[in-house]
Amino acid sequence: MKKSSVYVIVAIALIASLSLGMMDYETESLWHLLTSDGGNIIFILIATIFFSLFGIGLVLTTKALLKVNK
Predict the structure, then answer these.
(1) CA-CA distance, 59 to 57, in Å (whole number)?
(2) In the chain, what are the domain boundaries?
(3) Angle of helix 3-22 versus helix 38-68 axis, rounded to 10
(4) Are 60 and 18 contacting, i.e. CB atoms less than 8 angstroms apart?
(5) Phi and psi dihedrals of 31, rounded to 5?
(6) CA atoms within 13 A on the CB side of 8
(7) pTM here?
(8) What pLDDT does 34 receive?
(9) How far apart are CA 35 and CA 55, in angstroms?
(10) 12 Cβ contact list (under 8 Å, min separation 6)
(11) Residues 6+ apart with CB under 8 A from 13
């Protein structure tokens, strides 16, 4: 897997975790999400790691299945 594709997956994962954090009914804005509580930053970090690992696993699985079917 190329390094640039990993960066794209991590960027998409970060956007997904920020979007998930913004869905909280107590969050007023992105600035409020990032500065109001330390737990929000930890959640964003954990969610980004989870989504990144999920995306990388999905890409690697797809590549392996395409290689087997060739």
Answers:
(1) 5
(2) 3-68
(3) 140
(4) no
(5) -60, -40
(6) 6
(7) 0.86
(8) 87
(9) 27
(10) 51, 55
(11) 47, 48, 49, 50, 51, 52, 54, 55
What is the 3-class SS of 3-67, one letter each residue? Answer: HHHHHHHHHHHHHHHHHHHHCCCCCCCHHHHHHCCHHHHHHHHHHHHHHHHHHHHHHHHHHHHHH
Sign of CA dihedral 22, 28, 30, 36: negative
pLDDT tens across 30-57, in order? 888 888 888 889 999 999 999 999 999 9
Q: In the structure encoding, which two tokens stand for residue 25, read together?
A: 């009914």
Report d(CA 70, CA 51) in Å as an integer: 29
